[in-house]
Amino acid sequence: MNHRERVLTALNHKEPDRVPIDLWGSASRICNDLYFRIVEDLGLDGYGDYERASRCSDYVDYRISDIIDADFRHINIGKPKYFKKRTTNEGISFDEWGIGTKRNVHNKYPVVVYSPLVGADIDDIDKHKWPIPEDTGRIEGIKEKVENWAHNTDYSITATPAVSGLAFDICLFLRGFENFLIDLYSNPKFAEKLIQKVTDIITKINVYYLKPIGKYLDWIEFTSDYGMQDRPFLSSEKFRQFFLKPNKELFETVKKLAPNAKIFLHSCGSVKELIPDFIEMGVNILNSLQPRARDMNSFELKKEFGKDLIFHGGVDIQGGIIGSLEEAIEESKTRIKAFAPGGGYIFGPSNHFLEDTPTENFFVIYKIARKFGKYPIRINC
């Protein structure tokens, strides 16, 4: 099988020749310090494309994809041309939503330090300066790149998120975490209006982004972290009350632009009790399958939801691949044994490869996927 055939077979819940392998998607990038080590160890000349597509990973380098025989090419939305990020003398950077972030001195990653709607009332929502969805910088060059991949390669093509997060995440940042979670209980009319406004903006950005490329895509990625390590942020009842309908409408709109594409959702943490709601709102592919989170046992998830979902990722970055080489090998085999039988599994990490991942462990897990992930899966090995 070629790369695209392999992926499409897995997406149809059938067994390909081996499990498809992913890298450089919205939850499978390589954070900068590890990436620099890999480039140095391989003796590569220079770095890949400078995409700044996540908070920890600035580069996308398909030379590494080719070395591990990954099956994908992922298109990333461009940066707005008519918005220039502003940074204060204190190091606070403001994005197009008006949210202010600052680099954490301990781990170097940005954290939210300014939420523009902290003191807002319901009338202030319409007055806020919102992003301009149809900014030409978002789509410059993406149609040509995707068409080249479609016509001149055999890779599966997917779209990474147009916006980092869905309404839940953006509202938390706009309003402040505590304020917004309280709104869901004590100020529901405000919460509903803010959620709908943010969802409308996200939908318009996605329409503008996907219209030129939708027919070429095998899946479209969305990210929203509904889980903590030991529980969801919200009960299923609150999730259904506020987020199921807006998310479902967003996904239905996107599907009209890309009728052959699956809907991919990344959500960290313990989200098992929300999975039926994810399925109802139109999710086809679920990531990150964080195995150390509560109730996220890989074998049980496959048994309970394997007919309805394709599973993506799951390889443990909280312990499984940051220890010894033998532990990384066993971790990779465990996820394959759990998720791969019967098809419907894409091999990858449960989130971005962080700096504490040994370089040799990064390469060995993909070696295991190519070898041990051949069908029929050898469950007892």
Q: In CATH terms, what is the fold-level topology?
A: TIM Barrel
How much is the average pLDDT? 96
Strand order of the largest sheet: 3-8-9-10-11-12-13
Helix and strand string, N-terminal first?
A: HHEEHEEEEEHHEHHHEHEHEHEHEH
What does this 3D model show about the protein?
This protein is of the alpha/beta class and 381 residues long. It has helices at residues 3-11, 32-42, 62-68, 124-127, 142-152, 167-175, 177-186, 188-210, 236-257, 275-280, 298-305, 325-339, 359-372; strands spanning 49-50, 59-60, 72-75, 86-87, 93-94, 100-103, 110-114, 156-159, 219-223, 262-266, 285-287, 310-312, 345-346. The strands form 3 sheets. Strands 3-8-9-10-11-12-13 form a 7-stranded parallel β-sheet. It is globular. The mean pLDDT is 96.
Give a nutshell description of this structure.
The protein is 39% helix and 11% strand. By secondary structure, the chain is of the alpha/beta class.
Secondary structure elements and pairings:
Blueprint: H1 3-11, H2 32-42, E1 49-50, E2 59-60, H3 62-68, E3 72-75, E4 86-87, E5 93-94, E6 100-103, E7 110-114, H4 124-127, H5 142-152, E8 156-159, H6 167-175, H7 177-186, H8 188-210, E9 219-223, H9 236-257, E10 262-266, H10 275-280, E11 285-287, H11 298-305, E12 310-312, H12 325-339, E13 345-346, H13 359-372
Helix pairs in contact: 6-7, 6-8, 7-8, 8-9, 11-12, 12-13
